[in-house]
Design brief:
- The chain has 782 residues and is α+β, with helices and mostly antiparallel strands.
- It folds into six domains: 62 residues, Helix Hairpins (Orthogonal Bundle), CATH 1.10.287; 231 residues, D-amino Acid Aminotransferase, Chain A, domain 1 (2-Layer Sandwich), CATH 3.30.470.30; 88 residues, OB fold (Dihydrolipoamide Acetyltransferase, E2P); 76 residues, 5' to 3' exonuclease, C-terminal subdomain (DNA polymerase, domain 1, Orthogonal Bundle), CATH 1.10.150; 168 residues, DNA polymerase, domain 1, CATH 1.10.150; 77 residues, Rossmann fold.
- The strands form seven sheets. Strands 14, 15, 16, 17, 18, 19 and 20 form a seven-stranded antiparallel sheet that branches. A five-stranded mixed sheet has the order 2-13-10-3-9.
């Protein structure tokens, strides 16, 4: 057969086999019998063996597995593979929905829902439509390269179907072992004397970690796509559910149990529906997953720690076992959260031996009344995280004492604190605690913070572990010699050979580049500096608002927390977090060190004139959150006493004379009896006076053209990115939201605008095209 005919036949065979895989794994509609599939694959194998120059990486023949590599290379995820928060009750789901409604406005948000498969999370990278790399989730930031093993799974397309996919596309999903296939595999293993798999999840995870891909090819693995990661050279639809449909068109299996529902009732109804059919599903699940369907809404909700605020896993009840607590310890996490946990006698729970279990927080310990030596019931929450469920009191040993949270951090010795209304205790060391150091440095150096290019996780680990950097300020005293010495010590520790250049000289360009990047970052904006400090609850938008309204780092770092509430969208929780951070001497010292080492805020300016309208005693008294002091009562006090000091010093009967009811006056007096409260009132009053003295008088010029208006962006803009458009609209006073509601002032719609445009038209909200947006910006921007 001529070469051209052979090449044509090979292409035909590949297309037939991939079509068969698509119909079997994606459409669940087999087109040809297994025998015919095997015949076509044999013919392809024979033709490629005789013509090896025609073999391509995406050929179905290459799924059978390559030779063992001996190890798995690390893969850094461009976008982290985040974990999900868990809900175990309807009430927890209701809280999740309520927070979304409060943040985005409106009610009955739309959610994409799907079963939570009990398998192994992976990320698949496609370039030009071709599968080039696959990795496990790992720790969320870095996984293992299991590309060769993933190629053996027929459900994973080696070449995307259809058209319109981005140049680079990362698809996230779950590799799992179907229950029927798991059972058949174990039955065959018993007959043949092979190894029996413990359970489908372990079977899937173990299969992907086989060093020999030919072993993986023998395991009955399947795959479902549930989302996307990094995207370059293209765009996806506006919603998660539409993206899943697009992925299905491109050849990825998507769970047929996926659906779209509205509001809390829709979520709980889906949970019960899936729960009722759980035993009949062809795969193991440990719950269901709820995701806010709208991508822009997801962006606006953001993240907490390493989990999104816009998604949650609603878990099914888990297996339980009994064991004995040997000790109760605490762990300080990378973000400073202190979590109690128990060390216990080993016990089998859900097929896994566990010796440690979480107690979540101090309130949970108190509620359960867990003590050293107690017999407890342990479950694997969601079949993943072991947790203590309850104590068996009749087995409690004599003399067992109640447990209480330590007063100081076991890592740095700083005080442990808990904000009012929060369950979590935190180490107050923040910028100075060794447990939080690496997280703090990584955040400080990130692109949207100080933007220290080249300071990746590996260098942060080594600089911290070897003692070169003990706080973020130490970055600015690093020298070229320090970095080279650090690299040499790290290589010696790890047993690796230093990189060399011509002539055997150790490479130094990486160190020179890093020093240059650190030097460049010394000049920054107030917004970036505040965000870089990693203050709890202070994200980019809050940092931007603080910088805009107060304008001066020295002013901000000396303000008592009630004054921060003068900034729109800064409530009590955020204000107290700011105040607590700035009350810590260690954190203030780090700021001093940063400034002493050449970090300069370049955009210092006077406070915004808009502050002046609320710089009065009555507003301050309300912001102090004094029991029973409403706006009306605060106005009465401000009229009678004029200053914070006189309110503080006046006897209770004078407060009554000023118009306060007797019970309100008593509440105020009781509040002032606490020395910390009296001091806070005094310091806040003094700060109010200083702020009033330096804040410019308001004027018409201080008003921005979009003050009080809410904009929503949808679709693709040709002349500027959505991020650029958002920044420019915010600079003119607008709030840019992620979803359309009755509060929306106008919608900017680009090409391929989706459901947001439809909703705006339905609600009668003005819609701008890109030309209108650009014309408005040209007219109103300075």
């Amino acid at each position: 057969m001529p070469k051209t005919n052979i090449a044509t036949r090979i292409a035909e065979l590949r297309q037939q086999l991939e079509d068969a895989n698509y119909r079997y794994h994606v459409l669940d509609d087999p087109a040809i019998p297994d025998a015919d599939y095997d015949r076509l694959l044999r013919e392809l194998d024979e033709l490629e063996a005789a013509n090896p120059e025609l073999i391509t990486p995406d050929s179905p023949s290459q799924r059978v597995g390559a030779v063992p590599t001996g190890s798995f290379a690390p893969v850094r995820h461009v976008i982290p593979m985040l974990s999900l928060g868990n809900a175990f009750s309807d009430e927890e789901v209701a809280v999740f929905v309520r927070k979304i409604e409060e943040k985005l406005g409106g009610d009955q948000p739309t959610f994409s829902v799907e079963p939570k498969l009990d398998g192994l999370a992976i990320s698949l990278r496609y370039e030009g439509g071709r599968f080039v790399q696959g990795a496990t989730r790992g720790d969320g930031a870095t996984g293992e390269d299991v590309t060769a093993n993933l190629r053996t799974i027929k459900a994973i397309p080696l070449q995307l179907r259809g058209k319109g996919w981005p140049q680079v596309l990362e698809v996230r999903g779950e590799v799992y072992m179907p229950l029927a296939a798991f059972k058949a595999y174990n039955e065959r293993a018993l007959v043949e004397g092979g190894k029996v798999l413990a359970n489908p999840r372990n079977g899937a995870a173990g299969s992907l970690r086989q060093l020999d891909p030919r072993m993986t090819a023998q395991r009955p693995l399947a795959f479902y796509a549930y989302g996307v990661g990094a995207i370059e050279g293209g765009e996806l639809p506006d919603t998660h559910s539409q993206t899943l449909k697009r992925l299905r068109d491109w050849g990825f299996p998507v769970s047929g149990e996926s659906d779209v529902v509205e509001g809390l009732d829709g979520l709980l109804g889906y949970y019960r529906t899936i729960g009722a059919k759980r035993e009949r599903l062809p795969f193991d699940i440990d719950g269901v997953v709820y995701k806010l369907d709208d991508y822009e809404g997801q962006v606006e909700m953001g993240f907490v720690s390493r989990a999104p605020r816009w998604a949650i896993a609603h878990k099914f009840p888990a297996q339980e076992q009994m064991t004995v607590v040997e000790s109760i310890e605490v762990n300080v996490g990378r973000t400073g959260a202190v979590t109690p946990w128990v060390l216990m006698q080993p016990v089998q729970v859900g097929g896994v031996t566990v010796t440690r279990a979480t107690l979540h927080n101090a309130d949970q310990v108190a509620r359960l009344d867990v003590r050293n030596g107690d017999t407890v019931i342990v479950r694997r929450a969601g079949d993943v995280i072991p947790e203590v469920v309850r104590v068996v009191p009749e087995h409690r040993p004599p003399g067992a004492k109640p447990w209480s949270m330590p007063s100081h951090c076991p890592v740095c010795g700083s005080e442990l604190v808990r904000e009012e209304g929060e369950a979590v205790w935190r180490c107050s060391g923040e910028l100075t605690c060794a447990a939080q150091r690496k997280e703090a440095i990584g955040h400080f150096a990130s692109r949207r913070a100080m933007d220290i290019e080249g300071l990746g996780e590996r260098y942060i680990e080594v600089l911290s572990d070897l003692g070169y950097v003990t706080s973020v300020a130490d970055l600015y005293k690093l020298s070229l010699d320090d970095l080279l010495e650090m690299k040499r010590r790290a290589d010696e520790r790890d047993g690796t050979t230093p990189e060399t250049v011509k002539g055997g000289k150790v490479a130094t360009r990486w160190a020179e580049n890093l020093i240059e990047s650190i030097d460049r970052s010394r000049s920054t904006t107030l917004e970036r500096f505040l965000y870089a400090l990693g203050i709890q609850h202070v994200g980019e938008s809050t940092a931007k608002a603080l910088a805009s309204w107060f304008g001066d780092l020295e002013l901000i770092r000396r303000l008592p927390w009630p004054l921060f509430k003068r900034v729109p969208d800064v409530g009590g929780e955020v204000a107290r977090a700011l105040g607590h951070f700035l009350d810590q001497p260690g954190n203030q010292q780090v700021i001093d060190d940063l400034l002493a080492r050449g970090v300069t805020v370049t955009d210092t300016h006077a406070p915004s004139p808009k502050l002046r309208q609320d710089l009065n005693l009555a507003t301050l008294l309300v912001d102090l959150e004094i029991p029973k002091i409403t706006r009306i009562r605060a106005d009465q006090l401000a009229t009678a006493f004029r200053t914070a000091a006189t309110v503080r010093d006046a006897p209770e009967h004078n407060h009554v004379t000023a118009g306060l009811p007797a019970d309100t006056a008593r509440a105020l007096a009781a509040w002032l009896d606490d020395g910390d409260n009296a001091r806070l009132l005094t310091e806040s009053g003094e700060a109010l006076a200083r702020l009033d003295a330096i804040t410019p008088a308001g004027s018409a010029a201080a008003q921005m053209p979009l003050d009080g208006q809410t904009a929503v962006l949808t679709g693709t803009l040709a002349a500027l990115s959505r991020d650029d458009a958002k920044v420019r609209l915010e600079a003119l006073g607008a709030k840019v939201a992620g979803s359309v509601s009755k509060k929306t002032s106008f919608v900017v719609a680009g090409e391929s605008a989706g459901s947001k445009l439809d909703k705006a038209q339905e609600l009668g909200i003005p819609v701008w095209d890109e030309a209108q947006l650009l014309a408005f910006l040209a007219e109103h921007e300075p």
